[in-house]
Each structure stands twice: as structure tokens, then as C-alpha cells.
Amino acid sequence: MAPSIVFSLVSLLLVSTCGYVQPLEEGFISAVLSDKGLEFAKELLIEKGIASTVMLQLPEIENSAQVPLVGKAKVVLSNITINNIQVNSSSVKTGESGIVLVISGATANLSMTWRYTISSWLIPIGISDSGNASIEVTGMQVGLTVNLRNQEGSLKLTLLDYGCHVGNLLIKLEGGASWLYQLLVDAFEGNIASAVEEGISEKIKEGIVNLDNLLQSLPKQISLDKTAVLNVSFIGNPVLSSSSIAIAINGSFTKKNEVLVPLDYQQGLKISAACGGLQKMMKVSIHENVLKSASLVYYSARKMQLIIDKLPDQDILNTAKWRFIVPQLYKRYPNDDMQLNISVSSPPVIQLTYQDIGATIFLDIIVEVLEKGELIPVAIISVKIGASCAVEIVGNNISGRLRLQQLSTYLKWSKIGNLHMYLIQSVMSSALKTVIIPYLNYKLKRGFPLPIVDGYGFQNAIILYNHPWIAVCSDVSLEDYYLGQPSPYIS
């Protein structure tokens, strides 16, 4: 087994599926791998393990034996190579003791070269010969037990037990005498079996060390843009039940260069194990506080601002268009261009419901007139927007699409007297539907990344709402981690 075997196993632990109900600690994102996901991981690990172990070359073996009537024979076996492995049965189990992967009843085919020399008082000049041989290994058992623990926000992988046992060997010589075959069986069978067992066991050990180093190097935060980072450090230890593996991830947004401090919420919240009656490999559950923390970060960074100086109907941004809606504006500033300076006046209120994400957004829209090259604010209109957000999966990101539900406006300040707000509201509604909402949807479409390792992707994902959580239930697709090509093991 090579490093890729265990790497793939733990990689799949970083996504989540159905079959788990467990109080979370402080994590805003939960991750669970179900029995279906474990089965998928097991088959993938075996395929990748076979690909990594094939062409493994074992150390040279040298031994000697006394041959009746001939003398002492010195035999050297070299270029011992594992050419093929077939697995008949396998299993993966999880529990308090760790993750146990067992392969039983496997067969392997090996090739090697041999040479011998014989010297005795009867044959003072000595004789020698060489050739090739093939070996069939049957009844091979391979197993390992690993455990995952949280170490300062990263996953620590520990190898608890591992090994390989060879059942029987069948050696077929090309060339050589019949006595040589019997010599190989009698004197070398144990050596060859031990070489296979030690070679595969050493690969397991090396793979765990390399994978543990990789896990320790995984980032604890993901940079989203120039403003925010997503805290993806692990919270608590993974929970291993008889049919699933679960982890908790912090999941809060913070400003760049700020200390990563998790936000508090009510302890003991539980997530549903259901996936709408569907059997899925993974289920990523996201608490509404993830969205709330994002809202707070971008609001505090003053990134929720927008200046509209161009519209599909550019005439709207001229006082002449407003002469019947706000005649005093046109009278005071005839035929002057305008712009709308829009800013969010408080952090948007976000709440997950049982059918979508609800958002209440409070805006201040400053109406500015461009007169003689100078922008002059003439009115401030406060707007309350009620919107819903439908969530979708784009690649490995979760993104959203806003829909306007309700709109109300009132005049906050005016330099041009009272305004007919019902007319203003109509114009604002048009601007929201044609400019502002499409602009926000463009931003939301980028989404933010779900906690899944590069090389894996969502397949046939569905969205479930269960206040205060939103869940992504999905199967997993895989592209080859090393080559960046579609995996030959997944159809």
C-alpha cells in the first residue's frame, strides 16, 4: 500500500454525509461520512493501493543449502517485483478504536530472476546457472488501523496497527533442474513470503507518515478575496461510530489579518441525519451563523456599497426623466446627470428557514446630481428590502440567487422638499430588479468553497433546509489527484 491509499481515505473524511446525529461543539460546518461513503472510499483506496503497489521491487534474497551428492549451493534471488494484485474481499469498519481497513483472500503475481553456484571437492571448478521465475501468492491478508485526532485545529493521523500476511506460494521456474525447484520451495519460501509482507508493511508505514505531514500542512483558513477569510480549522476530535465518521469545522468568516476566533452560539445544536430519503455519500451542513459572520465582516469592511452611474435605460439617471415624479428636482437642476450612491446602513439580517434563506437588507440611497462637474447630494432615501435566497451548488462552491420579495421606502433627508414616495418606490423597484439584484447575484454566484479536498467534487447534489442549518447532500466524484485526469476507477 502506498501513501495514496491512506490519503484518499482521510481526504474523504473532510466531506460529510448522512447517518449521523451528534451535538456539535463550536463548529458552524459539520461533516459526516456515511456507510455508503465509507464503501466508496474503501473501493477507491483498494484500487489506488493496487496501482501504487504494482511494480514494487523487493530486496534481494541470498541463501544457501546443501544438495546431496552435489555440494553446497548458493542461490541469489533478485529483481523480485510485484506485478499484479487481485482482491477477493475487503471491509472497512469505524469505531472508538479507529478506522480499520482489511483486505482478505488476495492474490498476487511476482516475477524474479535467480542464479546459483555450486562448488565442492567433487567439482573444483564449480558450476552455475541463472534464469527467471514467476510466483503466485494466494491467501494474502492486508490490514491497517488508523486514528484521527484534533491537534491545534489540524488533523493528526496515527497508525495504530498494520501488517500483511502471505498464505501460500507457488513458484514456477524457467530453466534450472528439478532439484533447484525443490530447493527454492524448501529454503526460500519463507524468505519470499517475508519479503512480500515486509515490503507492503513498510509502504503502509511510509504512507501514514507522508499523509500525516500533508494533513498538518492543510491550511486553517481559506482566503476568499481581499477582505475575508474562511476559518476551516477543525473543532474537537472526529467522532467515529459504527457506520460513519463525523467532524466539525469552525466555518466563521473573519477579516484578513485578524486572529481566528470562533463565534459562539447555543451549545448542543443537532443536525439532521436525513437526506430526504436518499442515500448519499456525503452531507455538508452549514449553520446560519456562517452567513451571519460573512455579513458582519463585509459590512464592517464597508464593502456593501455601490454607485450606480450607468443603467440600461440611461435616461433614468437624468433629472429630465424625473420631472413628473419629482418636479422640484428638475426645476432646480434641469437636464443634469445623476447617480445613486447606495450603501447598506446596517448588517443584513439573515435567517435560514425551512425552505430558503431569508434576508432583510436596509439601504441608504443618496441621490446625487452632477452640476458643473460637482456631485451634489439632494436627498437620502432609506429602503428596506425583503429578499429570499435560493442556494445552489456551483462546482465545489455553495452559491446563492436573490429574489426580491418586498420593498418599502421612506424619505430620510431632502434638499428639495417632500417627495412622492410611492412614485419613488416604483422607480426604486425597477432599479433593484434591473441593476442592484443582478449585481448582487453576480457576486453571490461566486459563492464560497465547501470543505472538500482538491480532486474531489460533488455529484447529483441536493439542498435541504432545516432551520438553522442548510445541508448539501451529495455523492462524490473524483478526478485523479496526481495526474489531474479522470480517475479510471470511477465510472
TrEMBL record:
Cited SMART domains: BPI1, BPI2
Residue ranges of domain Lipid-binding serum glycoprotein N-terminal in the record: 33-258
Signal sequence extent: 1-23
An example Gene Ontology molecular-function term: lipid binding
Coiled coil: none
Domain of life of the source: Eukaryota
GO cellular component: extracellular space
Every Lipid-binding serum glycoprotein C-terminal domain range: 276-474
InterPro entries assigned: Bactericidal_perm-incr_a/b_dom, BPI/LBP, BPI/LBP_pln, Lipid-bd_serum_glycop_C, Lipid-bd_serum_glycop_N
Keyword annotations of the record: Glycoprotein, Signal
Keyword Glycoprotein: yes
Similarity comment: family membership: Belongs to the BPI/LBP/Plunc superfamily. BPI/LBP (TC 1.C.40) family.
Name of the protein this chain belongs to: Uncharacterized protein
Organism: Psophocarpus tetragonolobus
